[in-house]
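PROTEIN DATA CARD
Card holder: FAD-dependent oxidoreductase
Chain length: 392
Origin: Luteimonas marina
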Amino acid sequence: MSRRDLHDVAVVGGGVVGAACALELAELGLDVCLVEAARPPAWSSAQPDLRVYALASDNVALLETLGAWTPVREARAQPYRRMRVWDAAGGDPISFDADALARTELGWIVEHGLLVDALWQALPRSRIRLACPARVEALEQDAAGVQLRLDDGTRVAARLAIAADGAASPLRRLAGIAAEAHDYAQQGIVGYVQVERPHEATAWQRFLPTGPLALLPWTDGTCSIVWTLPNDEAARVLALDDAAFARAITTAFDARLGTLRPTSRRVAFPLQRQLAATQHAGRVLVIGDAAHAVHPLAGQGVNLGLRDVSALRDSVREAQRRRVAWDASHRLARWARARRSENTVAAYAFDGINRLFSNDAIAPTLLRGHLLGLAGRMPPLVDLFRRRAAGG
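Structure generated from the sequence above:
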Protein backbone atom coordinates (compact mmCIF):
# COMPACT_ATOMS: atom_id res chain seq x y z
CA MET A 1 0.00 0.00 0.00
CA SER A 2 1.25 3.51 -0.75
CA ARG A 3 1.34 6.00 2.09
CA ARG A 4 -1.71 7.81 0.73
CA ASP A 5 -3.70 4.57 1.06
CA LEU A 6 -2.78 4.20 4.74
CA HIS A 7 -5.54 5.30 7.13
CA ASP A 8 -4.81 6.40 10.64
CA VAL A 9 -7.59 4.22 12.05
CA ALA A 10 -9.87 1.46 10.78
CA VAL A 11 -12.94 1.07 13.00
CA VAL A 12 -14.70 -2.26 12.51
CA GLY A 13 -18.36 -2.16 13.54
CA GLY A 14 -20.82 0.66 12.91
CA GLY A 15 -23.15 0.33 15.89
CA VAL A 16 -23.53 3.03 18.52
CA VAL A 17 -20.02 2.67 19.96
CA GLY A 18 -18.24 2.05 16.66
CA ALA A 19 -19.92 4.90 14.80
CA ALA A 20 -19.33 7.28 17.71
CA CYS A 21 -15.66 6.24 17.83
CA ALA A 22 -15.17 6.80 14.10
CA LEU A 23 -16.81 10.24 14.27
CA GLU A 24 -14.88 11.28 17.37
CA LEU A 25 -11.49 10.33 15.92
CA ALA A 26 -12.33 12.03 12.63
CA GLU A 27 -13.19 15.17 14.62
CA LEU A 28 -9.61 15.07 15.93
CA GLY A 29 -8.32 15.19 12.37
CA LEU A 30 -7.47 11.50 11.98
CA ASP A 31 -8.02 9.69 8.67
CA VAL A 32 -10.68 7.08 9.53
CA CYS A 33 -12.20 4.14 7.68
CA LEU A 34 -15.39 2.59 9.09
CA VAL A 35 -16.07 -1.04 8.15
CA GLU A 36 -19.61 -2.34 8.69
CA ALA A 37 -21.36 -5.51 7.55
CA ALA A 38 -24.74 -3.91 6.77
CA ARG A 39 -26.16 -0.43 6.56
CA PRO A 40 -28.62 0.03 9.45
CA PRO A 41 -32.29 0.58 8.59
CA ALA A 42 -33.69 4.09 8.85
CA TRP A 43 -35.40 4.76 12.16
CA SER A 44 -39.20 5.14 12.06
CA SER A 45 -41.23 6.76 14.83
CA ALA A 46 -44.12 4.47 13.92
CA GLN A 47 -42.05 1.36 14.70
CA PRO A 48 -40.38 1.85 18.08
CA ASP A 49 -37.21 -0.12 18.68
CA LEU A 50 -37.65 -2.56 21.56
CA ARG A 51 -34.01 -2.07 22.57
CA VAL A 52 -33.49 1.12 24.56
CA TYR A 53 -30.59 2.69 26.43
CA ALA A 54 -30.45 4.73 29.61
CA LEU A 55 -27.84 7.24 28.47
CA ALA A 56 -25.92 9.00 31.23
CA SER A 57 -25.23 12.72 30.93
CA ASP A 58 -21.50 12.34 30.16
CA ASN A 59 -22.35 10.27 27.10
CA VAL A 60 -25.05 12.70 26.03
CA ALA A 61 -22.32 15.37 26.10
CA LEU A 62 -20.18 13.14 23.86
CA LEU A 63 -23.02 12.78 21.36
CA GLU A 64 -23.59 16.54 21.39
CA THR A 65 -20.02 17.14 20.23
CA LEU A 66 -20.69 14.80 17.30
CA GLY A 67 -23.87 16.58 16.24
CA ALA A 68 -25.92 13.44 16.94
CA TRP A 69 -27.76 14.40 20.09
CA THR A 70 -30.01 17.24 18.86
CA PRO A 71 -31.75 15.10 16.19
CA VAL A 72 -32.23 12.32 18.76
CA ARG A 73 -33.72 14.66 21.36
CA GLU A 74 -35.99 16.31 18.80
CA ALA A 75 -37.20 12.95 17.45
CA ARG A 76 -37.92 11.04 20.68
CA ALA A 77 -35.91 10.95 23.88
CA GLN A 78 -37.33 10.73 27.40
CA PRO A 79 -35.42 12.33 30.28
CA TYR A 80 -35.51 10.58 33.63
CA ARG A 81 -35.12 12.63 36.78
CA ARG A 82 -35.27 9.92 39.41
CA MET A 83 -34.37 6.28 40.02
CA ARG A 84 -36.25 4.11 42.50
CA VAL A 85 -34.88 0.68 43.45
CA TRP A 86 -36.43 -1.74 45.94
CA ASP A 87 -36.46 -5.41 46.81
CA ALA A 88 -39.49 -7.70 46.85
CA ALA A 89 -38.10 -9.30 50.03
CA GLY A 90 -38.66 -6.08 51.97
CA GLY A 91 -36.50 -3.34 53.41
CA ASP A 92 -36.30 0.33 52.49
CA PRO A 93 -35.94 1.45 48.87
CA ILE A 94 -32.99 3.41 47.56
CA SER A 95 -33.59 6.56 45.53
CA PHE A 96 -31.57 8.89 43.31
CA ASP A 97 -32.75 12.34 42.27
CA ALA A 98 -31.38 14.81 39.72
CA ASP A 99 -31.97 17.67 42.15
CA ALA A 100 -29.23 16.33 44.42
CA LEU A 101 -26.77 16.81 41.55
CA ALA A 102 -28.21 20.20 40.56
CA ARG A 103 -29.19 18.74 37.19
CA THR A 104 -32.38 18.81 35.22
CA GLU A 105 -32.17 15.04 34.62
CA LEU A 106 -30.10 11.98 35.52
CA GLY A 107 -30.10 10.75 31.94
CA TRP A 108 -32.21 9.96 28.90
CA ILE A 109 -34.05 6.89 27.59
CA VAL A 110 -33.29 6.49 23.88
CA GLU A 111 -34.08 3.83 21.31
CA HIS A 112 -31.13 1.96 19.84
CA GLY A 113 -32.33 2.38 16.26
CA LEU A 114 -32.81 6.13 16.61
CA LEU A 115 -29.35 6.62 18.07
CA VAL A 116 -27.64 4.55 15.37
CA ASP A 117 -29.59 6.41 12.69
CA ALA A 118 -28.52 9.80 14.07
CA LEU A 119 -24.87 8.76 14.18
CA TRP A 120 -25.00 7.45 10.60
CA GLN A 121 -26.66 10.67 9.45
CA ALA A 122 -23.58 12.45 10.79
CA LEU A 123 -21.12 10.29 8.82
CA PRO A 124 -21.44 12.14 5.46
CA ARG A 125 -20.44 15.38 7.19
CA SER A 126 -17.14 13.81 8.20
CA ARG A 127 -14.19 12.71 6.08
CA ILE A 128 -14.72 9.08 7.04
CA ARG A 129 -14.32 6.44 4.35
CA LEU A 130 -17.18 3.97 4.63
CA ALA A 131 -16.67 0.32 3.64
CA CYS A 132 -20.20 -1.12 3.73
CA PRO A 133 -21.35 -3.80 3.28
CA ALA A 134 -18.08 -5.46 4.21
CA ARG A 135 -16.80 -8.00 6.71
CA VAL A 136 -13.26 -8.56 7.92
CA GLU A 137 -11.95 -11.99 6.93
CA ALA A 138 -8.26 -11.70 7.79
CA LEU A 139 -5.88 -9.54 9.80
CA GLU A 140 -2.18 -8.94 9.38
CA GLN A 141 -0.28 -6.63 11.70
CA ASP A 142 3.23 -5.55 12.55
CA ALA A 143 4.78 -2.79 14.63
CA ALA A 144 3.80 -0.16 12.05
CA GLY A 145 0.15 -0.98 11.48
CA VAL A 146 -2.52 -3.43 10.33
CA GLN A 147 -3.96 -4.68 7.09
CA LEU A 148 -7.51 -5.99 6.97
CA ARG A 149 -8.74 -8.22 4.16
CA LEU A 150 -12.45 -7.75 3.55
CA ASP A 151 -14.87 -10.30 2.15
CA ASP A 152 -15.09 -8.47 -1.18
CA GLY A 153 -11.34 -8.96 -1.67
CA THR A 154 -10.35 -5.37 -0.92
CA ARG A 155 -7.81 -4.47 1.74
CA VAL A 156 -7.77 -1.71 4.31
CA ALA A 157 -4.44 -0.59 5.73
CA ALA A 158 -4.24 1.53 8.88
CA ARG A 159 -1.91 2.48 11.68
CA LEU A 160 -4.49 1.17 14.14
CA ALA A 161 -7.58 -1.06 14.02
CA ILE A 162 -10.42 -0.82 16.53
CA ALA A 163 -12.76 -3.76 17.14
CA ALA A 164 -16.27 -2.47 17.84
CA ASP A 165 -18.00 -5.39 16.16
CA GLY A 166 -20.04 -6.80 19.03
CA ALA A 167 -19.71 -9.51 21.67
CA ALA A 168 -18.86 -12.18 19.07
CA SER A 169 -16.22 -9.83 17.54
CA PRO A 170 -14.45 -11.52 14.61
CA LEU A 171 -11.69 -8.89 14.73
CA ARG A 172 -11.02 -9.59 18.41
CA ARG A 173 -10.61 -13.28 17.60
CA LEU A 174 -8.35 -12.54 14.62
CA ALA A 175 -6.18 -10.43 16.94
CA GLY A 176 -5.81 -13.47 19.22
CA ILE A 177 -7.58 -11.88 22.18
CA ALA A 178 -9.41 -14.39 24.36
CA ALA A 179 -12.69 -13.55 26.11
CA GLU A 180 -13.93 -15.11 29.35
CA ALA A 181 -17.70 -15.62 29.33
CA HIS A 182 -20.23 -16.55 32.01
CA ASP A 183 -23.74 -17.58 31.03
CA TYR A 184 -26.30 -16.28 33.53
CA ALA A 185 -28.90 -18.83 32.34
CA GLN A 186 -31.24 -15.84 32.21
CA GLN A 187 -33.14 -14.02 29.48
CA GLY A 188 -33.97 -10.34 29.32
CA ILE A 189 -37.53 -9.78 28.09
CA VAL A 190 -38.03 -6.37 26.46
CA GLY A 191 -41.10 -4.56 25.18
CA TYR A 192 -43.41 -1.66 25.98
CA VAL A 193 -46.27 -1.45 28.44
CA GLN A 194 -48.99 1.08 29.11
CA VAL A 195 -48.99 2.23 32.73
CA GLU A 196 -52.12 3.16 34.66
CA ARG A 197 -50.35 5.76 36.82
CA PRO A 198 -47.83 8.40 35.69
CA HIS A 199 -44.28 7.11 35.44
CA GLU A 200 -43.06 10.38 36.99
CA ALA A 201 -39.99 10.55 34.73
CA THR A 202 -38.59 7.84 36.97
CA ALA A 203 -36.53 4.74 36.18
CA TRP A 204 -38.01 1.99 38.37
CA GLN A 205 -36.41 -1.30 39.32
CA ARG A 206 -37.73 -4.07 41.57
CA PHE A 207 -35.54 -6.99 42.56
CA LEU A 208 -37.29 -10.36 42.52
CA PRO A 209 -35.89 -13.82 43.34
CA THR A 210 -36.02 -14.60 39.62
CA GLY A 211 -34.17 -11.42 38.61
CA PRO A 212 -34.74 -7.66 38.37
CA LEU A 213 -37.70 -6.04 36.64
CA ALA A 214 -37.04 -2.52 35.30
CA LEU A 215 -39.58 -0.05 33.96
CA LEU A 216 -38.02 2.87 32.13
CA PRO A 217 -40.06 5.99 31.28
CA TRP A 218 -40.56 6.32 27.55
CA THR A 219 -43.52 8.43 26.45
CA ASP A 220 -46.50 9.74 28.41
CA GLY A 221 -48.34 6.72 29.79
CA THR A 222 -45.83 4.20 28.43
CA CYS A 223 -42.70 2.50 29.79
CA SER A 224 -40.05 0.27 28.30
CA ILE A 225 -39.49 -2.95 30.25
CA VAL A 226 -36.45 -5.11 30.86
CA TRP A 227 -37.57 -8.20 32.78
CA THR A 228 -34.81 -10.64 33.73
CA LEU A 229 -35.95 -14.23 34.18
CA PRO A 230 -34.39 -17.73 34.21
CA ASN A 231 -34.44 -19.32 30.77
CA ASP A 232 -37.38 -21.66 31.40
CA GLU A 233 -39.48 -18.98 33.07
CA ALA A 234 -38.69 -16.50 30.32
CA ALA A 235 -39.95 -18.97 27.72
CA ARG A 236 -43.15 -19.46 29.71
CA VAL A 237 -43.75 -15.72 30.11
CA LEU A 238 -43.07 -15.03 26.43
CA ALA A 239 -45.72 -17.60 25.49
CA LEU A 240 -48.45 -15.85 27.54
CA ASP A 241 -51.21 -14.01 25.73
CA ASP A 242 -51.47 -10.27 26.35
CA ALA A 243 -54.06 -10.57 29.12
CA ALA A 244 -52.05 -13.16 31.04
CA PHE A 245 -48.83 -11.22 30.51
CA ALA A 246 -50.51 -8.06 31.85
CA ARG A 247 -51.49 -9.90 35.02
CA ALA A 248 -48.03 -11.44 35.43
CA ILE A 249 -46.05 -8.23 35.01
CA THR A 250 -48.45 -6.16 37.11
CA THR A 251 -48.04 -8.65 39.95
CA ALA A 252 -44.26 -8.80 39.49
CA PHE A 253 -44.07 -5.02 39.74
CA ASP A 254 -46.36 -5.01 42.78
CA ALA A 255 -48.81 -2.76 40.89
CA ARG A 256 -46.56 0.20 41.73
CA LEU A 257 -47.75 1.98 38.58
CA GLY A 258 -51.17 0.36 38.57
CA THR A 259 -52.18 -2.14 35.91
CA LEU A 260 -49.58 -2.70 33.19
CA ARG A 261 -50.78 -3.60 29.69
CA PRO A 262 -48.49 -4.63 26.80
CA THR A 263 -48.53 -2.32 23.78
CA SER A 264 -45.89 -4.05 21.66
CA ARG A 265 -44.53 -7.46 20.80
CA ARG A 266 -42.08 -8.94 23.28
CA VAL A 267 -38.68 -10.48 22.61
CA ALA A 268 -36.00 -11.97 24.83
CA PHE A 269 -32.22 -12.06 24.57
CA PRO A 270 -29.77 -14.27 26.49
CA LEU A 271 -27.71 -12.66 29.24
CA GLN A 272 -24.03 -13.21 29.87
CA ARG A 273 -20.99 -11.53 31.35
CA GLN A 274 -18.06 -11.43 28.98
CA LEU A 275 -14.68 -9.75 29.38
CA ALA A 276 -11.84 -9.67 26.87
CA ALA A 277 -8.50 -10.65 28.39
CA THR A 278 -7.12 -7.31 27.21
CA GLN A 279 -8.37 -4.32 25.25
CA HIS A 280 -5.07 -3.94 23.40
CA ALA A 281 -3.07 -6.40 21.30
CA GLY A 282 -0.37 -4.91 19.10
CA ARG A 283 -2.08 -2.46 16.75
CA VAL A 284 -5.62 -3.56 17.64
CA LEU A 285 -7.84 -1.98 20.32
CA VAL A 286 -11.11 -3.51 21.53
CA ILE A 287 -14.07 -1.41 22.71
CA GLY A 288 -17.76 -1.69 23.55
CA ASP A 289 -19.44 -5.10 23.61
CA ALA A 290 -16.42 -6.60 21.85
CA ALA A 291 -14.50 -5.89 25.06
CA HIS A 292 -17.15 -6.19 27.76
CA ALA A 293 -20.72 -7.46 27.98
CA VAL A 294 -22.38 -6.84 31.36
CA HIS A 295 -25.67 -7.67 33.04
CA PRO A 296 -28.34 -5.13 31.98
CA LEU A 297 -29.67 -4.54 35.51
CA ALA A 298 -27.83 -1.21 35.81
CA GLY A 299 -28.31 -0.13 32.19
CA GLN A 300 -24.57 0.56 31.87
CA GLY A 301 -23.57 -1.51 28.83
CA VAL A 302 -23.62 1.20 26.16
CA ASN A 303 -22.45 3.79 28.68
CA LEU A 304 -19.28 1.79 29.35
CA GLY A 305 -18.68 1.45 25.61
CA LEU A 306 -19.03 5.18 24.99
CA ARG A 307 -16.67 5.82 27.89
CA ASP A 308 -14.11 3.67 26.07
CA VAL A 309 -14.49 6.17 23.22
CA SER A 310 -14.23 9.24 25.47
CA ALA A 311 -11.08 7.90 27.11
CA LEU A 312 -9.50 7.18 23.73
CA ARG A 313 -10.42 10.67 22.51
CA ASP A 314 -8.78 12.20 25.59
CA SER A 315 -5.62 10.12 25.05
CA VAL A 316 -5.32 11.15 21.39
CA ARG A 317 -6.09 14.79 22.18
CA GLU A 318 -3.45 14.91 24.90
CA ALA A 319 -0.86 13.39 22.56
CA GLN A 320 -1.72 15.95 19.89
CA ARG A 321 -1.42 18.76 22.44
CA ARG A 322 2.01 17.52 23.47
CA ARG A 323 2.99 16.84 19.84
CA VAL A 324 3.87 13.21 20.50
CA ALA A 325 2.71 10.00 18.77
CA TRP A 326 -0.95 9.43 19.58
CA ASP A 327 -0.60 5.74 18.67
CA ALA A 328 2.56 5.01 20.65
CA SER A 329 2.42 1.50 22.10
CA HIS A 330 2.83 2.65 25.71
CA ARG A 331 0.00 5.15 25.30
CA LEU A 332 -2.36 2.55 23.85
CA ALA A 333 -1.42 0.12 26.62
CA ARG A 334 -2.11 2.74 29.29
CA TRP A 335 -5.55 3.45 27.79
CA ALA A 336 -6.30 -0.29 27.66
CA ARG A 337 -5.28 -0.92 31.28
CA ALA A 338 -7.41 1.92 32.58
CA ARG A 339 -10.47 0.93 30.56
CA ARG A 340 -10.24 -2.78 31.33
CA SER A 341 -9.87 -2.00 35.02
CA GLU A 342 -13.01 0.14 35.08
CA ASN A 343 -14.99 -2.25 32.91
CA THR A 344 -13.97 -5.28 34.99
CA VAL A 345 -14.98 -3.60 38.24
CA ALA A 346 -18.34 -2.66 36.71
CA ALA A 347 -18.97 -6.14 35.26
CA TYR A 348 -18.29 -7.94 38.53
CA ALA A 349 -20.19 -5.37 40.58
CA PHE A 350 -23.30 -5.96 38.45
CA ASP A 351 -22.63 -9.69 38.64
CA GLY A 352 -22.53 -9.55 42.45
CA ILE A 353 -25.74 -7.56 42.67
CA ASN A 354 -27.48 -10.01 40.35
CA ARG A 355 -26.25 -13.00 42.39
CA LEU A 356 -27.32 -11.45 45.69
CA PHE A 357 -30.81 -10.44 44.60
CA SER A 358 -31.69 -13.06 41.96
CA ASN A 359 -32.21 -16.01 44.30
CA ASP A 360 -34.57 -17.19 47.02
CA ALA A 361 -32.01 -18.68 49.41
CA ILE A 362 -32.91 -17.88 53.01
CA ALA A 363 -29.78 -15.99 54.08
CA PRO A 364 -29.59 -13.57 51.10
CA THR A 365 -33.35 -13.03 51.25
CA LEU A 366 -33.17 -12.06 54.93
CA LEU A 367 -30.24 -9.72 54.39
CA ARG A 368 -30.59 -8.06 51.03
CA GLY A 369 -33.57 -5.76 51.64
CA HIS A 370 -31.92 -4.45 54.79
CA LEU A 371 -28.60 -4.00 52.97
CA LEU A 372 -30.35 -2.01 50.25
CA GLY A 373 -32.02 0.16 52.87
CA LEU A 374 -28.71 0.62 54.70
CA ALA A 375 -27.00 1.70 51.48
CA GLY A 376 -29.75 4.26 51.00
CA ARG A 377 -28.96 5.79 54.40
CA MET A 378 -25.22 6.17 53.77
CA PRO A 379 -24.76 9.54 51.99
CA PRO A 380 -21.28 8.80 50.56
CA LEU A 381 -22.49 5.51 49.06
CA VAL A 382 -25.70 7.05 47.72
CA ASP A 383 -23.68 9.89 46.21
CA LEU A 384 -21.33 7.40 44.55
CA PHE A 385 -24.23 5.40 43.05
CA ARG A 386 -26.04 8.55 41.98
CA ARG A 387 -23.06 10.04 40.22
CA ARG A 388 -22.28 6.71 38.56
CA ALA A 389 -25.84 6.45 37.23
CA ALA A 390 -25.67 10.01 35.90
CA GLY A 391 -22.17 9.74 34.48
CA GLY A 392 -20.57 12.13 36.99
